[in-house]
Amino acid sequence: MSTKDTITLDGIPQQAQGQGYFLTSLDELVGMGRKNSLWPLPFATSCCGIEFMATMAAHYDLAQFGSERMSFSPRQADMLLVMGTIAKKMGPILRQVYTQMAEPKWVIAVGACATSGGIFDSYSVLQGIDKILPVDVYVPGCPPRPEQILEGIDKLRDLVHNEPLRRRNSPEYQQLLKSYGIDIK
Amino acid sequence: MDIQEVIDRLSQRFEGHIGNFEESYGLTTIQVRRAYIFEVIKYLKEDLSFNFLTDLCAIHFPDHEDEMRFAMVYHIHNLFENLRLRLRVFLPESDLEIDTMTPLFASANWQERETYDFFGVKFKGHPNLVRIMNMDEMEVFPMRKEFPMEDGGRVDKDDRFFGRTIHNE
Q1: In Å, how far are A5, A39, B1 from A52, measured between CA atoms?
Q2: Looking at the domain A37-179, which fold is it?
Q3: Nearest CA to CA, how far is A116 from chain B (Å)?
Q4: Per the CB < 8 Å rule, is A124 touching B142?
Q5: If we measure between CA atoms, which residue out of A25, A26, A184, A43 comes closest to residue A108?
Q6: Does B139 touch chain A (CB under 8 A)?
Q7: Per CATH, is B3-149 categorized as 3.30.460.80?
Q8: Within 13 Å of residue B97, how many CA atoms lie on the same side as its CB?
C-alpha cells in the first residue's frame, strides 16, 4: 500500500556528488554502514528486558533501524544492551560478555538499575554497570517505555555514525579501557 | 493425632531438653536444646510422620546476651495429618554451630547453605557448606544486623530526599 513518496531513505553522505558518482570520506561511509546494521546483544535480567521485547516486536519494530537480528553470541554483536538489575555476583559475567565482543562495540544501559542501581541500594547489587564497563548511552526509566529505548538506540546510532575510524586505536580509548581494568590484547 | 498429642509425646521422650511451648498465629512453637535438635527432628520425622521440612532459617538478636544472640528456626509439616510445628534453637554468637539436617531432609542442603551465607551459622556435617547466593568474595554475613543494608559506594543519594534529615533541610 505504501507509495513511493512515503518511504524515506537514509541520507546519502553529503559530499561532492554528481551524475553517477559521489565522493565522501571513508569515516562517513563506514559510519553509515555501521549505524544501519547494529546487531544487539540483549543482556536482559528483569523488567526492562520485557520492555525491550516489546521494542523488538512488530509494534515498535527495532528492525527498522537495521537491528533485525538479536545476536545472543557476543562474538557477532555490536551493541550490548544491559537491561535490568545487575547483582554483584553477575558483574564478572557481564564483564566477560563485554570482553568477548569484538571491537567496535557499544554499550547501552537501559533502565534505572543498569544505570545506577535504581531502587536496589543494597549490598548485593551493583550500583550501575559503569562501575565495571564503559557505557555509551544511558536510558532512564523504571522501566523505560519502548519509545525511550528506541530513543536511546537512536542516540547511539548518532554516536556510531560520527565515530572516527581511528577512535578505537586512540590512546584515549586505550586509557578508558585501562581505567576499567579491561585488557584488550 | 493432634498437635497436643505431638507435644505430649515429645515432652515424654525429650524430658528436660525441650520446653517453652507456645502458640502464636496458630503455629505451635517449641524451644529445643542445641544438642538435641537433630534427635528431635529425627523422632518427629520417623515416628510422628513430620515428613516435610517447610523452612529453616536463622534470626539475629543483636540485643540478646551472647548465649541467645542467634536462633535457628525449623518449620516442619506432617502432610498426613496436616500438622505444623515450629522448632527454635538458640545459639551463642561465640559458638555458632549446629547439626546439619541433610541426612534427614535433602532439601536442607541449600537452605543451610543460604543460612550460612547470610548469617554465618556453621552446620556440622554439611556436605558442601559454601556460599550459595552472595558472591564468593564477600567477607561478611549480610543479614546480621550490624552490617549495613545499603551499598557504601552509592554517591547520588541525597539524605534530604529520604527522610533522613530533620525537617528535610
Answers
A1: 31, 14, 55
A2: Rossmann fold (3.40.50)
A3: 8
A4: yes
A5: A43
A6: no
A7: yes
A8: 6
- CA–CA separation, B98 and B16 (whole Å): 19
Residue B130 at interface with chain A, using a CB cutoff of 8 Å: no
List the single residue in B with minimal CA-CA distance to A90.
B135
Subunit contact A89:B133, Cβ cutoff 8 A: yes
Q: Could you tell me what percentage of chain A is helix, strand and coil, using 3-state DSSP and rounding each to the nearest 5?
A: 40, 15, 45
Question: In terms of CA atoms, which chain A residue is nearest residue B156?
Answer: A116
Reading chain A (185 residues) residue by residue, the pLDDT tens digits are 445 566 666 666 667 777 888 788 888 889 989 999 999 999 999 999 999 999 999 999 999 888 888 888 999 999 999 999 999 999 999 999 999 999 889 999 999 999 988 888 888 899 889 989 999 999 999 999 999 999 999 999 999 999 988 888 889 999 999 998 887 65
**A89–B135 C-beta distance less than 8 A:** yes
- Cβ neighbours for B130, distance < 8 A, ≥ 6 positions apart: B113, B116, B136
Q: Do B133 and A123 touch (CB under 8 A)?
A: no
* H or E, element range at B4: helix B3-13
- The cell 545506577 sits on which residue? A116
Which of A113, A127, A129 is the best substitution to test chain B (most B C-beta atoms within 10 A)? A127
Number of A/B CB contacts below 8 angstroms equals 30
The helix-helix angle for A26-35 and A146-161 (nearest 10°) equals 160
Contacts of A130 in chain B (CB under 8 A): none
What pairing do the DSSP bridges indicate for beta strands B83-91 and B27-32? parallel
Contact between B110 and B101 under an 8 Å Cβ cutoff? The reply is: no
CA distance B89 to B96: 11
Closest CA to B120 of B101, B100, B143, B103: B143
0.90 cut: is pTM over it?
Answer: no
